[in-house]
């Protein structure tokens, strides 16, 4: 069976095609992504109207390129992100998915974006055992419990303020490193001392929620540090600030993820989302998983950021699990709950 997936929840227009084999494994046939990230750079964050317009321009060419790359004329099923995400951006992918599904007369599956970030790992690392998933991107920071990809996901915790990637972007902006700032901040941190500045570890007190995150206090601490340096007229130690900030984010994320695996008796941790490209988040997850006897699964960076393949792969798992197709009248759901896997 061949499944085509469409993703348009944020600033990437993704069209992916996978083939599901009889043994349940999936094979990647096409992975086309057009990003509008450059158009948002001067605003320092994703501008919803710009993202929607870029999706409109990119979706049909991306569909054509993906079909040509896979050598497929008509897939057997179509999967699309129905939420969570930006309303106008989602609308473009969902409208396109409905039109293609109707024209090809194939079933449509309207799916949860977050499930896709977990499902995509099966392409590289095989069937997914029950796991804890840590999703960190510009729009999301979630700690999830996944028992079966075809079943609803349980949310253990999430950020109460900024997403982790958003915190990277805001701090990078404070340091004059451009947008998106995650990669630049990561590079600057490579030359810094992670112990140079004792930035706070948000929400790690004994009375704080076990699995939720907060990064706004950390961001404020960095802003205060930068202000104080400006008043004193001292030169900003940018590598040390970057390394110390990054250490705090990686510390809290991996500590709570490992805590969840221990609490739940689960031996697999999956990472997903664009911010898992971060060098320190990856290395600390590796160190702590090894120490705790937890198996760590991380998709390659290209599959960690938003793409259509992850939705196609989730679609293949959901179909294999016996799900019914969604109605062609299905509506986008910008605030879709993690626990709702399909609409
Ligand atoms: P969504 O939240 O809907 O998944 P998004 O577009 O906000 O989508 P992604 O495209 O998955 O998120 O990831 C982009 C985010 O990842 C940005 O915030 C970026 O700064 C961050 N990021 C990318 N590389 C790194 C890195 N090496 N270190 C830290 N953050 C990074
Ligand atoms: Mg993005
Ligand atoms: Fe995403």
From TrEMBL:
User: HAMAP family this protein is in?
Assistant: TsaD (MF_01445)
Which leading EC class covers this enzyme? transferase
GO CC annotation terms, alphabetical = cytoplasm
What are the binding positions for substrate in this chain?
135-139, 169, 182, 186, 278
Task: Kindly provide the name given to this protein in its UniProt entry.
Answer: tRNA N6-adenosine threonylcarbamoyltransferase
Compartments it resides in: Cytoplasm
User: What SUPFAM superfamilies would the database entry show?
Assistant: Actin-like ATPase domain (SSF53067)
* EC number of the protein: 2.3.1.234
What molecular function terms (GO) are annotated for this protein?
A: iron ion binding; tRNA N(6)-L-threonylcarbamoyladenine synthase activity
Please explain the role this protein plays, according to its UniProt record: Required for the formation of a threonylcarbamoyl group on adenosine at position 37 (t(6)A37) in tRNAs that read codons beginning with adenine. Is involved in the transfer of the threonylcarbamoyl moiety of threonylcarbamoyl-AMP (TC-AMP) to the N6 group of A37, together with TsaE and TsaB. TsaD likely plays a direct catalytic role in this reaction.
Q: What is its main location?
A: cytoplasm
Q: Which reaction does it catalyse?
A: L-threonylcarbamoyladenylate + adenosine(37) in tRNA = N(6)-L-threonylcarbamoyladenosine(37) in tRNA + AMP + H(+)
Q: How is the cofactor bound?
A: Binds 1 Fe(2+) ion per subunit.
Q: Name one GO biological process term.
A: tRNA threonylcarbamoyladenosine modification
Q: Which cofactors are named for this entry?
A: Fe(2+)
Superkingdom is: Bacteria
Instruction: Look up the coiled coil feature and give its residue ranges.
Output: none
* Claim: tRNA processing is one of the keywords in the record: yes
Chain residues that bind Fe cation? 113, 117, 306
UniProt keyword annotations, A-Z? Acyltransferase, Cytoplasm, Iron, Metal-binding, Transferase, tRNA processing
């Amino acid at each position: 069976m061949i499944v085509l997936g469409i993703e348009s929840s944020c600033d990437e227009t993704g069209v992916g095609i996978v083939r599901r084999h009889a043994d349940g494994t999936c094979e990647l046939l096409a992975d086309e992504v057009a990003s509008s990230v450059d158009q948002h750079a001067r605003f320092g964050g994703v501008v919803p109207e710009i993202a929607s317009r870029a999706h409109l321009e990119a979706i049909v060419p991306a569909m054509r390129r993906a079909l040509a790359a896979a050598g497929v004329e008509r897939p057997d099923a179509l999967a699309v992100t129905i939420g969570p995400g930006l309303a106008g951006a989602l609308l473009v992918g969902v409208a396109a998915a409905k039109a293609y599904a109707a024209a090809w007369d194939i079933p449509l599956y309207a799916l949860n974006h977050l499930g896709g970030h977990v499902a995509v790992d099966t392409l590289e690392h095989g069937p997914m055992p029950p796991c804890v998933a840590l999703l960190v991107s510009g729009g999301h920071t979630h700690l999830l419990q996944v028992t079966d990809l075809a079943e609803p996901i349980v949310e253990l915790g999430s950020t109460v303020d900024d997403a982790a990637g958003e915190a990277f972007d805001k701090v990078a902006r404070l340091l004059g490193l451009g947008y998106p700032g995650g990669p630049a901040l990561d590079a600057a941190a490579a030359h810094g001392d992670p112990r140079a500045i004792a930035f706070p570890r948000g929400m790690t007190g004994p009375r704080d929620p076990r699995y939720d995150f907060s990064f706004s206090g950390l961001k404020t601490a960095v802003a205060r540090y930068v202000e104080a340096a400006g008043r004193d007229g001292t030169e900003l130690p940018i590598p040390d600030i970057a390394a110390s900030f990054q250490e705090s984010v990686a510390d809290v994320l991996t500590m709570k993820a490992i805590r969840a695996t221990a609490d739940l008796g689960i031996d697999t941790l999956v990472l997903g989302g664009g911010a898992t490209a971060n060098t320190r988040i990856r290395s600390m997850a590796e160190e702590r998983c090894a120490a705790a006897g937890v198996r760590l699964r991380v998709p390659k960076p290209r599959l960690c950021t938003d793409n259509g393949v992850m939705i196609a792969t989730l679609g293949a798992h959901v179909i294999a699990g016996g799900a019914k197709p969604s109605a062609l009248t299905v509506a986008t759901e910008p605030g879709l709950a993690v626990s709702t896997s399909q609409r």
